[in-house]
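As a warm-up, study this chain.
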Amino acid sequence: MMRKRQRSILLIFIILSFCSLIVLISAVNYLFSPSYQSKKVVEAFYTHEQIGHFAESWELLHPYMKDRWSKEQFMADRYHVFIGHFGTDTFQFTIEENSEVKDWKMAEELQPFDVAYKFNVIQTYEGKYGKFSFLQEVYVVKEEEEWRILWDYN
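Now compare it with the structure written out below.
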């Protein structure tokens, strides 16, 4: 009877260990997946924007985006529009689930990216004109081993 009980305990231990290993492998795979990593970049970008750290958010832009404005111009525009015109210090944001997009182009004249991850970001403001929200499509691609933000100009 004692041997049967020991076998049952050993079997339960083996099953629990195996299940724990599967959960751990799945969690690690998810944390290193392009989908998760690209979403973290979007979260970082809008967190910087939320607290007015526009220089840090600019750093997360893809070089194609940086070609559109200088860092100083980007920072001044973001501050002027979101804080100056809307009369608000900050905003809340939500990121809707992503989708993988193949052969996506930021603008018609540019080369397509093999793979981009698309997110819909909703920014909600409470300012001098009341409460309002903006929906922006955000794309993330890998550029020189770093995930970078792009917007659609098509």
